[in-house]
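Quick one - inputs below.
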Amino acid sequence: AQSVAQPEDQVNVAEGNPLTVKCTYSVSGNPYLFWYVQYPNRGLQFLLKYITGDNLVKGSYGFEAEFNKSQTSFHLKKPSALVSDSALYFCAVRAYNFNKFYFGSGTKLNVKP
Amino acid sequence: EAGVAQSPRYKIIEKRQSVAFWCNPISGHATLYWYQQILGQGPKLLIQFQNNGVVDDSQLPKDRFSAERLKGVDSTLKIQPAKLEDSAVYLCASSEQDNQPQHFGDGTRLSIL
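Output:
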């Protein structure tokens, strides 16, 4: 069965500090992995994806994520957080040979000035 | 490019009434998704279309929910009759192909009284 877990409901970080939002997944075969961000009363916006290739993926707004096959993880990172990064972040997974996407339950990121 | 358009943005109905949501995907996107996002949770896939054919509707409550994508462009999602537990945001998304990032509309917030 395919699934994705975001173990932290909320992450608090000070502006200027590095941030990490965690994601682990379970999928049969090779995964397609995605991160999305959601601002209040808006739909989800795509940040970055891993399909194949380099394990470190760079995306929008200075975010990056590292694919770790042995730990089945795809953590989202940013070297220096901004207050404007405060939002809800979702990890999503899809097996390469299976059509359905699965989203995590979301992590609320709070960046304090 | 124009984004995914959804209407209405908000809808309030009483239980046992019917409601319909409309989605116009990004031009040229073959894949269209409807998701249900309950407050505090990640999006749950209800139905996925590839052009005008259904790829996955395994999580669609077919006794009350229906969806169609005539001509492979815009789509409607209907609930009849509505239940209290249907209160949620209904998100429409589209992508060029089913393994590509999804572009989301801003959703329809449904409240059942």
